[in-house]
Amino acid sequence: MSEVRSVGLANALQGLPYQVAEVEINQRIAPDYQTLRAENPQRFGVPDVTLTLTAQRGVEVIMLGEIERPGLYPLDVPRVTAALLAAGGARSTADLREIRIQRRLPNNRLIEKTVDLYTPVRDGSPLPEERLEDGDVVIISRLDPAQSQDYDVNLVTRSTFAQPDILVRVFNYPGGVVGGRRVPNGSTFVDALVGDAVRGGDGLGLPLNQANLGSVALIRFDPEQGKPVVTKLDAKDAIYGDPTQNPPLRDNDVIVVGRNFINRITFAIDTVTRPFQDILSFILFFDGIFTGDFFD
């Protein structure tokens, strides 16, 4: 009785597309089939192996950079989009034009490929089908302010690739400190004030009948300038439809209500003894206001 020998394909097929694996298997078993055909041509024909992919093997990848929750993630669907969602979505500081995939090959050589998710979102074109492999490192690059002219941050924040919600800190001296509130990503100033029925947000919890809506300040850390930027807003005009008074919100924005309170906080920012080095020092400054004696 004739048998086809083991061709040892377990390692040879690893990482190959299944179409390429079909060719590899047929080439490996062809010599054995030639011998068998010589012995019994009626029983053994030309080998023709067809592979069918019934399920994709899960992988584990490391997510780093401008995402909500960096870390190690198991993925049933080994795609960049699935990894991005598993890690909580991209931050507003992310540049989805430059998602870097680093992969260590069996010979220990490190290769890197860049994937662009922004252009398909902007143009409505198909997403890239780059398949991730076990052990890949996916790095979401930070948006360079010098390269942001053609990058619509507002479009990204409204997409499914962005973190689902953002943290906004609110100081309303006449009505008491509201504190930090999470609102849906992509919310505008008015969405946060009155709630966003479309995205399901409840708003910032400001008592609109008591708050001084004519005197509101939006404070945001500008990484390019390396300092907080204060923008004065009229919430009444924003609610009545003035787009110049209704900017989109970003993660870690601060909203201050009341003219006197705005003056106190901006004075504190201008006279702080240690400059703001980054967004973390900006956050710690306002967290200190919450826990300190600023309101005494």
Number-wise, the strands total 10
End-to-end gap? 95 Å
Structural class: alpha+beta
Using the 3D structure, state the CATH architecture of the largest domain: Roll
Largest beta sheet, briefly? 5 strands, mixed
Helix content: 25-40%
Identify the quaternary structure here. single chain
In angstroms, what is the radius of gyration? 28 Å
Q: What topology, given as strand order, has the largest sheet?
A: 2-1-5-3-4
| Tally of discrete structural domains | 2
- pLDDT < 50 runs, ≥5 residues: 1-6
How large a portion of the residues is in β-strands, by DSSP E? 15-25%
Number of helices: 8
N-to-C SSE string, H for helix and E for strand: HEEHEEHEHEEHEEHEHH
CATH classification, class level of the largest domain: Alpha Beta
Per CATH, what is the topology of the largest domain? Outer membrane lipoprotein wza fold like
Shape: elongated
Mean pLDDT: 80
Q: What is this structure's SSE topology?
A:
Layout (H helix, E strand, L loop, with lengths): L17 H22 L19 E7 L5 E5 L4 H7 L7 E11 L5 E6 L2 H6 L13 E6 L10 H5 L7 E8 L6 E6 L4 H6 L21 E7 L4 E7 L1 H5 L13 E5 L1 H13 L7 H13 L5
Parallel strand pairs: 1-5, 6-10
Antiparallel strand pairs: 1-2, 3-4, 3-5, 6-7, 8-9, 8-10
